[in-house]
Specification:
Elements: E1 2-8, H1 16-30, E2 34-40, H2 62-70, H3 79-85, H4 88-95, H5 104-114, H6 122-135, E3 139-142, H7 151-158, E4 162-165, H8 169-173, H9 180-191, E5 197-200, H10 203-212, E6 220-222, E7 243-247, H11 256-269, E8 276-281, H12 288-301, E9 307-311, H13 315-323, E10 327-328, H14 340-346, E11 352-355, H15 360-367, E12 370-373, H16 378-389, H17 392-409, H18 412-429
Parallel strand pairs: 1-2, 1-3, 3-4, 4-5, 5-6, 7-8, 7-10, 8-9, 11-12
Helix pairs in contact: 1-18, 5-9, 6-7, 11-12, 11-16, 14-17
Length: about 425
């Protein structure tokens, strides 16, 4: 089977969706299939080797998409100029300034992309269609519902079914200013009719998106994300002194501020005087001000020497980082669709402490690898930490259960098998143009 994945790149920091798609493509290739990853907007930033060529051309290059949105003349420029603007070096440099557009601009651009052939980036869509016609895939997978504007022409002109992963689109769309927030949600609902099947990583997110974009029940399938277990073969050994970990992007929405506040309160309580906090994850230049604010808070409390921040670490560094933890907490304040960082920690036998909302109860219940606390409650988070720090035997048992379940049910081969089953079912049911 030949599959094409359309995955937006971040250019300058690791992206969980990019890494999930890359690991999946590599596993499909290992299984004997032909999987092609097409980076969009910016080059992919991966923590392991790419599934295909690192020189794969970039579609919907971020500079071209922006200029075509802002200036009509760039909707008619020659291909040689577009190709120059799509240069990897230039796009990677631009990727360092991820906050260069915002507010009304990002809302307008998102809406235009959702309009597909009716939007300002139709020249980019024409080029993608030409590429797909030449490739002749059996199916096309969109890594996020924010790309569904292109599904209609792919289905009609390439003649193959279009599938789409759901990956937390609501948390982005709900931050847009009006009228773009409402317009984007409406266009997303309308264009979603062109997608054969949506794949949600949790029941929570499947139900949420079914309701918000009015999907048919049979149009949505749930398959929890999988991970590559290379490097996770041996379980971690608990550190001699307790270490609380955080592993996600350094932003408020992921709960980093809540973790810092809870750590300060835990230290002030004095019950575990030697406890440390280690935080790792993606960080962009626009995240630095927030991180500096948290560092000042720790300094004022006198605990800055007990905390370590490790931005943008490699895959090997990530595995080693997780091995140093007693427990992991990423208390995201928004409705997280899944949380790959949880199964990464549990794969090494590290228990997790998460808020009782969004997809977290599903994951903790399915794995048995952690405990839950009331969302947004600093005191409850501290109490949950103390329950595990004060009972190492219980923490070890949770870690054992989580590790066992992740290695059995959340491996990339297991996910790839489910992914192929879903794809084949629809491909076999829909006649293609070739």
């Amino acid at each position: 089977m030949k599959l094409v994945f359309l995955t937006p790149g971040t250019g300058s920091y690791y992206c969980g969706v990019c890494m999930r798609d890359n690991a999946l493509a590599k596993e499909l290739i290992r299984m004997g299939h032909d999987a092609v990853m097409l980076p969009m907007y910016l080059p992919l930033s991966l923590d392991e080797t790419a599934a295909g060529s690192q020189e794969q051309e970039i579609f919907y290059g971020g500079i071209n998409v922006y200029l075509q949105q802002k200036f009509a003349i760039f909707r008619k420029t020659p291909r040689w100029l577009d190709r120059w603007l799509d240069g990897r070096g230039l796009l990677k440099w631009v990727g360092k300034f991820s906050g260069m557009t915002g507010g009304t601009e990002i809302g307008e651009m998102t809406h235009s992309m959702l309009l597909g052939e009716e939007g300002n980036q139709v020249k980019e869509l024409d080029r993608l269609i030409d590429f797909l016609r030449a490739e002749r895939p059996d199916a096309v997978w969109l890594s996020t519902a924010l790309l569904v504007g292109m599904a209609r022409r792919i289905r009609q002109e390439v003649g193959v079914p279009v599938f789409c992963s759901l990956q937390g689109e609501d948390s982005f769309l709900d931050t847009l200013s009006e009228p773009w927030r409402t317009r984007c949600w409406e266009s997303l609902a309308e264009r979603s009719r062109d997608v054969s099947t949506f794949l949600a990583p949790s029941r929570y997110f499947a139900e949420l998106m079914t309701r918000r974009i009015r999907l048919r029940e049979e149009q949505v399938t749930v398959a929890p994300n999988g991970m590559s277990l290379e490097g996770y073969e041996e379980p971690a050994h608990p550190p001699k002194k307790p270490v609380i970990g955080y592993f996600a992007r350094f932003i408020e929405g992921k709960g980093l501020g809540l973790v810092v506040n809870a750590f300060i309160r835990l230290k002030q309580g004095g019950r575990f005087p030697g406890v440390k906090l280690r935080c790792a994850g993606a960080m962009t230049t626009e995240d630095e001000d927030y991180l500096n604010l948290l560092k000042q808070r720790l300094s004022s409390a006198g605990f800055e020497q007990d905390v370590e921040f490790l931005p943008n670490i490699s895959r090997e560094e990530k595995v080693q980082f997780l091995r140093t933890l007693t427990l992991l907490s990423v208390p995201a304040t928004y409705g997280e669709a899944f949380g790959l960082y949880l199964i990464e920690a549990m794969a090494l036998g590290v228990p997790v402490v998460q808020p009782r909302h969004a997809a977290f109860p599903e994951i903790v219940e399915a794995t048995g690898g952690g405990v839950l606390f009331e969302p947004g409650d600093t005191a409850e988070l501290v109490k949950a930490w103390e329950s595990l720090l004060g009972d190492p035997a219980h923490a070890a048992e949770l870690g054992r259960r989580g590790r066992e379940t992740v290695h059995r049910d959340y491996s990339m081969p297991r996910f790839a098998e489910r992914f192929l089953e879903i794809t084949r079912e629809r491909v076999d049911a829909v006649p293609t143009a070739h």
